[in-house]
Amino acid sequence: MQHITGISRQQIRFSSLEDTISPDNQVRFIDAFVEYIDLSKLDFAVKTLKTEGRPSFNSKVFLKIYLYGYLNGVRSGRDLEKECFRNMEMQWLLEDIRPNYHSISDFRKDNPIALKKLFKLFVSFLKDADLIGRETIAIDDTKSRAHNSKKANFNQKKIDKHLAYIEAKTKEYLDTLEENDAKDNPAIIQNIQQKLERLKGNKFRYEQLEEKLKASGEPQISTTDNDARALLVQGQVVEISFNIQAAVDAKHNLVVATHTINKNDRSALSAIAIEAKENLGIETYTALVDKGYHNGKQIEICKQANITTIVAQPEQGKSNENGTTKDYLVAQFQYNQDTDTYTCPQGETLHTTGKWHKKCSLKDSYEFKKYRTPKCKECPVKFLCTSRAAGREIDRSQYADAVEENNKRYHANAQLYRKRQEINEHIFGTIKRQWGYNHTNLMGLEKVNGEHSLIMLVYNIKRSVNILGVPDLIAKLKKWNSPYKAKALFLLKSSYLKLNLEHYFNQTKLVA
Question: 389-420: b or e for each residue (b if 16 or more CB lie within 10 Å)?
């Protein structure tokens, strides 16, 4: 039986690295993009030539390694080192330079701020390449597991529980020690004394941790990664993680702003919304946001920044668990802005003294006015409205006007809001499910920010390559005028690439 046979391993072949890479391979765009940039202008830690000793690697080598690695699901320093030896695309990209894993890893750790600037620079390129619409942007978040276990995360309640356990165990051991001391059991006594010493050491560590927690002013503390926090991931599931914020443009679903925080979404809207506006250099846009971001103060800040928000309105809960029914929720009371009064479903008017009260909590801090009416005492349906003896009382926040405007837009633009999930949900699915980037191995909020900016950057590169193709994208890059352009070397590389592409296509025509 005949089979297809391969080429003998001993056969000598004459070829170059250039022959192994097709013109539409995405590795060509990585090379063109990195060569375009003057890394020193983006504050990368640029290696300089030493007067003596072994020459250093060019920082562009490491940037190319990480862009290629993250595009292909490889981000470990050791794995990237292996790719430099066995991967033809990586050899072409680096011109067969092979750094060690330690140098590769140091580049990512040393340049978190520069990586974030690089992401913003690429957004600027996408804008100038007309790949971003700049009209409708969807904002959402996803959680990335931190390099910190649940056992290494503490709050006051958890510390108190451990200290109470130590106290109970210490009392138990002391009672046992006294009992065995009377019976003269030296072996058991020595074992118990060792356990008591261990408990004493554990107690000291928890007391130190308690002092550190109080000094931080935070509700929780992590010992492996000080910036990691226990965050609600889904339902009642809590993970020690970071919260990646992303703003995604509706035209081609490209990420236009991103940063990572270590808290929930409630106070996160304005920062990511304003960052998107600044990155794109636009006057205004419409932001589509889910109900987890619904916060009066944040909506007001966006309004002042000329950003039109459509934030989903959370379901109205009961104002009073014991008395308020559905027909008498706050939403059923009509506010009159001219008279600064509320009208209840029974037609009575609730007035305010005009005095501002202040509410402070861990979640929010804002001022509000109270509205009441003496008619409540004689209302026949008071039991349906409130259980307060003095009658119904409504609080109106200083941000109520902005919230009401947002809620009206939400109800008037239901079809537009439904596009939010189509715009940004699949991005997190691609990054976490398909690429496996659901966790970070770096520690510290700044370094984690750098890695997540790199992830969003390679997502944008991948998607823009899929939209335009490598040759067209490189053509747009060559025409792009940016202050970060490394002119001389980039023009040289571009000319060389053009000659090789022409040679490739001519060879293809001759073969045909």
Answer: eebbebebbebbbbbeebbebbeeeeeebeeb
